[in-house]
Write a structure and sequence with these properties.
The chain is 39% helix and 29% strand. The protein has 160 residues and is an alpha+beta fold.
Length: 160
């Protein structure tokens, strides 16, 4: 009887460990947000919102697009949803190359990649440039370096 009880306890412990490991694997990586969540968070943080989908309708791979504008309209933060992950990867790489063109001697970009996400940041010529991709979404901005802290806080609130 004692061996049977020990065996059941061992099986339960093994199943719990497997469950925890499976949960950790399934929940790894950052989570993409929706256009609606972007708009909600932006409004909560004092940004004005505009839908720019009509401005880019010639790009059918973009399924949704909004901008969050600072209160004084000095900068905008763009948020895109794209048709799928492959299209998002291509869009991200194209935009990253455009940002990289601003690199000057002594400016070192910071690039990070995860399981389902990529981020590229560059400070150059008084500008802070940022692009982040999570799944099929893109967050992109270019602001004066004096605005970096404010937008970085907002980016953290979004999870990007």
């Amino acid at each position: 009887m004692k061996n049977k009880g020990k065996m059941i306890a061992i099986i339960i412990v093994v199943l719990v460990v497997i469950g925890i490991a499976a949960f950790a694997v399934l929940n790894s990586g950052r989570k993409a947000i929706t256009l609606e969540k972007f708009e909600e968070k932006a409004k909560e943080n004092g940004y004005n919102i505009a839908d720019i989908q009509n401005d880019i309708t010639d790009k059918e791979e973009v399924t949704g697009a909004k901008v969050a504008m600072s209160e004084d309209y000095s900068y905008i933060i763009r948020f895109y949803t794209l048709k799928d992950n492959d299209v998002a990867n291509s869009f991200y790489n194209e935009q990253k190359e455009e940002i990289a063109k601003n690199k000057q001697e002594g400016n070192e970009p910071v690039e990070k990649s995860g399981e389902n996400d990529s981020t590229y940041t560059l400070k150059s010529n008084g500008k802070y440039m940022y692009i982040s991709k999570i799944d099929n979404t893109i967050l992109q901005l270019t602001v004066n370096e004096t605005e970096e802290q404010k937008v970085t806080e907002f980016i953290k609130k979004l999870g990007y």
